[in-house]
Design a protein that fits this description.
elongated; transmembrane; DoxX-like_oxidoreductase; membrane; single chain; mainly alpha
């Protein structure tokens, strides 16, 4: 069972992760042509499919994090997505400019750290302040 203070901290963690993905997803929508161009420049295959999927994952994933719905499977999915975006979008090993390479290294490891946060969310569940938490009886297992 999750203590109330734990649920509050888990809620804040969900919001912190959600803000990042909601912001990124909305920026992708607002600058969709630029995002598609970026994916092309990175050599991402099937950009016409990948771009709307990435945008939807970030917006819908962020919203689901905020409300705390199906957080355990969502956290695993978002961890995998975040690692994939690190490898595809922050490929520092292909950069020759030292300043740009340093920037890409930082972004790569930032994504790996975010994936770690999602793995912790998978272990803890959504907490009581969530749709998942509201669906479990108070004496039952935590969501």
């Amino acid at each position: 069972m999750t203590r109330p203070v734990d649920s509050g901290i888990i809620f804040l963690a969900r919001i912190a992760l959600a803000v990042l993905f909601l912001w990124s997803g909305v920026m992708k929508l607002l600058g969709y042509a630029g995002f598609v161009g970026y994916l092309h420049s990175k050599g991402v295959p099937f950009v016409q499919i990948a771009a709307p999927i990435a945008t939807a994952v970030e917006v819908l994933g962020g919203l689901l994090l905020v409300i705390g719905f199906k957080v355990r499977p969502l956290a695993l999915f978002m961890a995998a997505y975040t690692v994939a975006t690190a490898v595809l979008g922050h490929d520092f090993w292909n950069i020759v400019d030292p300043a740009l390479q340093r920037d890409m290294v930082i972004h790569f490891w930032k994504n790996i750290g975010i994936a770690g946060g999602f793995l912790l969310l998978f272990v803890t569940g959504a907490g009581r302040l969530s749709v998942d938490g509201a669906r479990v009886p108070r004496g039952g297992l935590r969501p």
